[in-house]
Amino acid sequence: MRERGPHSAVGGIHRDQRSVFRSAREERLWQERWAAHSTFASLRWGEAIALRRTGIDLEGRTVHVREQLLELDDGEMRLGPLKSRAARRTVSIPSAIVAALADHLAEFVDVADDAFLFLGKRGGFLRGGNFRREARWADALKEMGIQGLHFHNLRHTGNTLAAQSGASLADLKARMGHDSDRAALIYQHATRDADHRIADALSARVKAEQTKREKRDDDGSLRTAPAG
């Protein structure tokens, strides 16, 4: 299926008129919700921009990933199947972001079941080439004091946090939407390496304290030793 934008009648896609005009405050809220949702649902770019109202279950705290949007060479956007069978998945989201997503649905998303969750400020699809401009991403990063953060970093962060939670290899693969072990193992190994570094830093601190205590004990022994 091909679309030139969410206003197209093909496939019953609806344009969200509320995305057209956003104040600075609304823009910031949109940015925060986009970042939180993409991070904590561990979404790929095409999956994130293809999400619709029916793909969100706030009561069940889940996101149903069923399709992706692809940008063709001629600029048309195509809704298509996911990259693999494993990519078709249901991802649980933290309860901490449910209220913000509920507000997002009420404020920015059309009431139609097939309305897209995240559209540009003029109501068009987000594209790889216009995302930073449409989402005013550079302004958001500057305000947060962050440099060089790209969309794929959000998914990377979500995957890392999932691995740090102690998720099993199978659970991590399912959440990420991967068939192979390789990608999930990278995050597990990175988490293990980071944990070892933390343990090494703690060990160094303990040893430093032990050395100080031993030095104090030695100094005290010298001061109290009887003259020979």
Describe the structure.
With 228 residues, the chain is mostly helical. The protein is built from 8 helices and 6 strands, in the order βααβββββαααααα. The protein has a 3-stranded antiparallel β-sheet. A 3-stranded antiparallel β-sheet has the order 2-3-6, with no helix packed on it. The radius of gyration is 25 Å and the shape is elongated.
Based on CA atoms alone, the radius of gyration comes out at 25 Å
Low-confidence stretches: 1-17
**What is the succession of H and E elements?**
EHHEEEEEHHHHHH
Distance between the termini: 97 Å
**Beta-strand content bin:** 5-15%
| Number of DSSP helical runs | 8
Strand order of the largest sheet: 1-5-4
Structural class: mainly alpha
- The coarse overall form would be elongated
**Helix residue percentage:** 40-55%
Mean pLDDT: 78
What is the count of β-strands? 6
Q: How is the main sheet built?
A: 3 strands, antiparallel
